[in-house]
Design goal:
The structure is a single chain. This protein is mainly β. It has three helices and 32 strands.
Length: about 475
């Protein structure tokens, strides 16, 4: 196996200190704060079942399950009978208008989320849903629907038929994790996984305002990874996200999940290891490691591989129940930030049950690249108390917010070098089940942290689905 390069290993092995991570924010910039504005109810009885420790309406990896565009907010969810619903409201409004699509959730699998996207070139809403290593379902609206929402009736007539391809482009029969992203030019891209857990590849498709094109795969599943316990010859790359920054660079943090349990100290753990990072400057056609070395060309046999050098920005073996698909953001200077979480070594060097061990001892960390080009990591002093994921948000002053399971919110200031993490909201009054779905676009649209959550229930008893809004510093 080729030796993997760990960037800034000496730095990453420690928690960042204020002196080490001094920020460059102006003294006048306010620190992080949240002020609850309102809560609205989407559905009094949304579908509820727990699978893979999560809910199908509230899996945090569903990009744009809630989003804001041109003064309106949009949400997608499944009702108590499993039908897909798309809702919208005027920003700050108390009521939602809904359209029920002619598609019913096909299985009780929390992976089968609803993700949405906007093609700015023609003002269409795009919806991808209900897939886990099998076929997907796709709906797109009429052109211009999102450009002038105030004068467009919100009825089923504005949505096209449910398709099992992207207007005839079928992509793959093993499709999972749809994430829509808008390019700086206004095209719409779809990120997805081909294959299955432990043996899959990331791929991209692109909509130019008239048709879809499959750009192809850009990460690989082959090669040998060896830990101190054993080896694995197949895996998949799990993305923490995929996002364009203010300069048009496309960023992706990731973890690897190995197919073989031989790499773990105990079969009750999880085979995720290492936090990696790549970027693209040509809209996802080629990919480079942090040092700028070309590591993949999309749609060719040269894909990002576990054996490539320079990918790992935080090294961790498979014995600490590292979570996949956590969260990422880019700041106002285009620098990448991520949330990762695992069981730190002070609680032991071998997790034996990743759910119970993460719940008892898991911690989240803020990992970022600073203006000097170094990687820094800070432990957030809030216990996970959950096996699930935490979401990352940066406000207009580049203060950071971590939205933990159950709707708890912690914050840290840029001025401190992100060393002053503290709990800002304890989640009281929400009765949230666990993970939340963040409206990434609204943070940038009107400086409001808005997230979708579902109330705790039991068995398959439906429960209420809400969106709650918190004002960030003005």
């Amino acid at each position: 196996m080729k030796r993997r390069t760990v960037l800034g290993a000496a730095l990453l092995g420690t928690v960042a200190t204020p002196a080490l991570a001094a920020g460059t924010a102006r003294a006048a910039d306010p620190g992080p704060s949240v002020n609850k504005q309102q809560s609205t109810r989407l559905d009094p009885q949304a579908v509820f079942f727990v699978s893979y420790d999560g809910l199908v309406n509230n899996n945090s990896f569903q990009k744009n399950g809630l989003f804001t565009y041109k003064g309106y907010q949009y949400a997608g969810w499944y009702t108590s009978t499993g039908y897909a619903v798309i809702g919208r409201r005027v920003l700050g409004g108390s009521s939602w208008s809904t359209v029920t699509l002619s598609h019913q959730l096909k299985s009780s699998d929390s992976h089968n989320v609803i993700s949405m996207g906007v093609s700015k070139t023609d003002g269409r809403l795009h919806i991808n849903m209900d897939s886990h290593s099998d076929g997907f379902f796709y709906v797109k609206s009429v052109a211009g629907l999102l450009d002038d929402p105030g004068s467009t009736a919100w009825t089923s007539a504005v949505f096209g038929a449910v398709q099992t391809s992207l207007d005839g482009v079928s992509l793959t029969s093993q499709f999972t994790y749809p994430q829509f992203i808008s390019t700086p030019e206004g095209r719409l891209q779809l990120s997805y996984r081909v294959g299955i857990s432990g043996n899959g590849r990331n791929a991209l498709a692109e909509y130019d305002g008239s048709s879809w094109t499959a750009l192809g795969e850009w990460s690989g599943s082959t090669g040998t990874y060896t830990s101190e316990h054993g080896s694995s010859t197949a895996r998949n790359m799990y993305l923490h996200g995929i996002d364009y920054d203010v300069t048009g660079r496309l960023h992706a943090f990731f973890t690897w999940r190995e197919q073989s349990a031989a790499v773990m100290c105990n079969s009750g753990g999880i085979t995720n290891h290492d936090t990696g990072y790549v970027y693209s400057t040509d809209r996802g056609r080629t990919w480079r490691n942090d040092a700028g070395t070309l590591v993949a060309t999309t749609g060719t046999s040269d894909t990002v591989a576990v054996t490539d050098s320079g990918l790992v920005v935080d090294s961790l073996n498979p014995d600490h129940s590292l979570m996949n698909q956590e969260s990422q953001w880019t700041d106002s200077a285009g620098l990448p930030h991520a949330i990762i979480s695992y069981v730190p070594g002070r609680f032991g060097q071998c997790t034996t049950n990743y759910v119970s061990d993460r719940t008892a001892n898991g911690r989240a960390f803020h990992l970022r690249k600073n203006s000097a080009g170094s990687w820094q990591k800070t432990e957030i002093p809030v216990a996970l108390n959950s096996s699930q994921r935490t979401k990352l948000v940066l406000d207009k002053y580049d203060n950071a917010y971590a939205v933990f399971p159950f709707g708890r919110i912690a914050g840290a200031s840029k001025a401190s070098g992100y060393s002053d993490w503290a709990l800002l909201h304890d989640g009281s009054g929400l009765n949230a089940f666990g993970e939340v779905v963040i409206d990434e676009m609204r943070v940038k649209a009107d400086n409001v942290l808005s997230f979708l959550y579902q109330e705790t229930s039991s068995g398959t008893t439906p429960s209420a689905l809400h969106v709650v809004d918190f004002a960030l510093p003005g």
